[in-house]
Amino acid sequence: MAELDGMRVATLEARMTGALASMISKRGGEPVCAPALREAPLDCADDVRYLLDKLESGSLDVVVFQTGVGARALFKEADEQGRLDFLLDSLRAITTVCRGPKPTAALKQVDVQVSTGIEAPYTTKELLDALTALPVRGKRLMVLQYGERNAALMSALSEQCASVDELCLYEWQLPVDTTPMTSLIDDLLDGCIDVITFTSQVQIRHLYVIAAANDVPANELSDALNSKTIVCAVGPTCAAALADVGVATDTQPEYPKMGHMVNALAEYVGRRELVSR
Asked: β-strands 230-233, 8-11: how paired?
């Protein structure tokens, strides 16, 4: 098994910080944790009431769940309104689509069937492919967004569907304490980080926001990432976001999951060591 052999591996993960750090440690790395976001709930009572009313009037054919966090937020708000049982019964009677294993697990926990899933790596492309194959042309959809609006998805669906509504139940914000991110940027510029891992594109955006707030030019940070550290992305969406800021991804896993990412990283490091001998 390839090992990270004491390498300092930065992670910007927030929700699964401990889990990812543990994976890195088990492969011999030294995790450097600098959470780059927090999931801030929104006042969504009226929006959830709108969804429930549309279900009650029979005005929805398909509900698309993009995240487990969004699904659980929906169930919590419906419960607070005293209509959770109605929501779950209604979802069991229509088509449900899940973007990956996390929303799938959230629905299964409340005994709601998933009518169709999508292929890895679970990007907007795979989601649109699955929806087109259903098909959804002429159907009435509701999309649960993740921490920001997926404009590309909504634009594509508006061309196919009779109607497309959306719910935004939480949003991605910077962490309250950004000191760890500032320290990480200093370490990246000084060449003190061997590897940096990205598990969402918003981590990349927030890293550059904090850099700008500390008078670090974007090109200087990108140059440091390209020349002084190994850059590991969890999947193609992250890799594309890195490319947008001029950063090349050195390695990414076949399947966009954290465990696969750490394994791919360790194997990449092992191959580099063999070549350098």
From this structure: unpaired
Q: What is the pLDDT of residue 276?
A: 62
DSSP 251: B
Q: What are phi and psi of 190, to 5 degrees?
A: -85, -5
Q: Answer for the pair 256, 235: CB distance below 8 angstroms, yes or no.
A: yes
> What is the rounded average pLDDT of the residues 149-164?
95
52 has a pLDDT exceeding 60: yes
Ordered domains of the chain (ranges, CATH): 8-37+176-276 (3.40.50.10090), 40-172 (3.40.50.10090)
Structure token pair of residue 47: 């929006």
Q: Which residues contact 235 (CB under 8 A, 6 or more apart)?
A: 121, 122, 123, 252, 253, 256
Give the C-alpha separation, 87 to 78, whole Å.
7
Q: How many CB atoms lie within 10 A of CB 168?
A: 17
